[in-house]
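Translate structure to sequence.
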């Protein structure tokens, strides 16, 4: 029993953390995404597309103001922690840097509430804003766990968060059958999971919250090193959320509900590349730092993800329509054509996630930022022109075209600048 415990909780060799963390991330991702689907099914099927769409419309609207609040600090932690001889000031500085940015994001998000005119969405705004603040603090604590290669801790936190969200939603539905009950369940699950993250943080020897004092010495470092990361990651967030925000503004929250249902299934499938890629980041970073060749690992991983993306897309095309009807009912039949379009994007998004990671590891994030900016701009312009007339179908096609273009452009520059 002790050997099993040590295997899953301790790092023994150079390769052991990669396999151990892959297991933890895999189990955690599968479990939490399964619970997320349960949450979506319960809320969407019982409440209907309009309140469900209003919930996610507000959630993604608020999230846009928190795009810059991380400033890439999580990525800098993951990349540079292993290189620092004295890591504690590094972690403390990053923690406070993110907290300050979170305060600014909260202020802007509160000010932007006046732009929400839908009555259902307006009633959810404050509760979801408070939840986002709690999630922001919890996420930076989890990146500290990941930097220590103790990803089992961040997995535990996320499992608790998603489990509570489902259980509290069911409980609150018994008291008041409304979308407000879902928002309150979201808030409480965020609060409790933050408390758990805080307690687990006390076990990390380099950083315990009671001893953290405000330190600004690393602020210039994180501002400089995090800038390319955050600008690139913000493009990724916009890629994933801007279409729903624009649909909400231009067509209404009901179409957001249908579109979000299809996106929810796509998100479930995207756990596959993240399970493979995330544990490789510290491992590949170490090898690059010690000048160990990694080209073979890169090519094998890229080929694997391309094959997996194609296989998952084909399986999804075969069963996706029946799955939506079975899980969500007749009210969400309009989601089926959206899902079938978005499934083709998996051919490109699986390997693209790894290519983006390689640019990050090789510290060529600014190049990747400008690469990604091109398809994102096309996506936004296309949505502005087409969504008013063609609605969510236009958004789905523009997403597919954007991912396709992003993959081929990124692959071209990766071969040129990363010697693949």
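Result:
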């Amino acid at each position: 029993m002790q050997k099993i415990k040590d295997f899953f909780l301790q790092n023994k060799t150079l390769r052991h953390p990669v396999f151990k963390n892959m297991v933890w991330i895999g189990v955690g991702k599968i479990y939490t995404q399964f619970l997320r689907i349960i949450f979506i099914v319960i809320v969407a099927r019982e409440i209907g597309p309009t309140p469900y769409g209003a919930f996610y419309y507000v959630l993604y609207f608020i999230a846009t103001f928190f795009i810059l609040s991380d400033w890439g600090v999580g990525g800098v932690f993951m990349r540079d922690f292993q290189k620092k001889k004295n890591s504690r000031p590094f972690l403390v500085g990053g923690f406070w840097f993110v907290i300050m940015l979170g305060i600014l994001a909260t202020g802007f998000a509160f000010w932007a509430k006046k732009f929400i005119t839908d009555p259902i969405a307006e009633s959810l705004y404050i509760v979801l804003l408070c939840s986002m603040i709690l999630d922001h603090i919890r996420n930076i604590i989890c990146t500290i766990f990941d930097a220590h290669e103790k990803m089992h801790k961040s997995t535990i936190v996320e499992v608790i968060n998603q489990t509570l969200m489902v259980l509290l939603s069911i409980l609150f539905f018994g008291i008041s059958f409304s979308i407000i009950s879902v928002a309150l369940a979201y808030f409480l699950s965020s609060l409790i999971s933050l408390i758990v993250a805080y307690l687990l943080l006390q076990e990390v020897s380099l950083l315990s919250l009671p001893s953290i004092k405000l330190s600004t010495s690393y602020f210039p470092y994180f501002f400089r090193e995090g800038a390319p990361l955050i600008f690139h990651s913000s493009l990724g967030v916009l890629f994933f959320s801007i279409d729903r925000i624009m649909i909400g503004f231009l067509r209404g929250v009901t179409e957001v509900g249908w579109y979000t249902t299809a996106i929810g299934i796509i998100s479930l499938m995207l756990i596959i590349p993240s399970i493979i890629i995330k544990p490789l980041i510290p491992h590949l970073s170490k090898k690059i730092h010690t000048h160990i060749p990694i080209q073979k690992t890169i090519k094998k991983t890229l080929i694997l993800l391309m094959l997996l993306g194609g296989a998952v897309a084909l399986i999804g095309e075969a069963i996706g329509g029946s799955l939506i009807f079975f899980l969500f009912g007749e009210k969400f039949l309009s989601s089926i054509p959206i899902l079938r379009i978005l499934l083709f994007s998996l051919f490109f998004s699986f390997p693209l996630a790894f290519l983006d990671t390689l640019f990050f590891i090789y510290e060529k994030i600014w190049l990747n930022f400008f690469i990604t900016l091109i398809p994102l701009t096309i996506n936004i312009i296309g949505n502005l022109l087409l969504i008013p007339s063609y609605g969510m179908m236009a958004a789905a096609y523009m997403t597919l075209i954007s991912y396709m273009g992003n993959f081929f452009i990124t692959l071209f520059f990766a071969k040129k600048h990363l010697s693949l």
